Amino acid sequence: MKNITLSADETVIERARSEAARRGKSLNQLIRDHLEELAGHREPSNEFERLRELSKLSRGHRGAWRFNRDEIHGRS
């Protein structure tokens, strides 16, 4: 495994480190995962975990809204 040096704003690094800890990972592991994803070497089994991580970050909430059969099929 090869080492790289990364420069970033101190505030960004601290916020990223906090987010990594919230996900139960080190900042190093989080960056490694992202590099693997960029390079297209991410295992398919990891995709579900990535989706789960992204859903936790989502600020969207559907509240009490539910699909309505008539709306789905364009009926009024």
From TrEMBL:
Q: Which domain of life is it from?
A: Bacteria
The record's annotation in InterPro entries points to:
DUF6364
Give the matching Pfam families: DUF6364
Q: Can you name this protein? A: MerR family transcriptional regulator
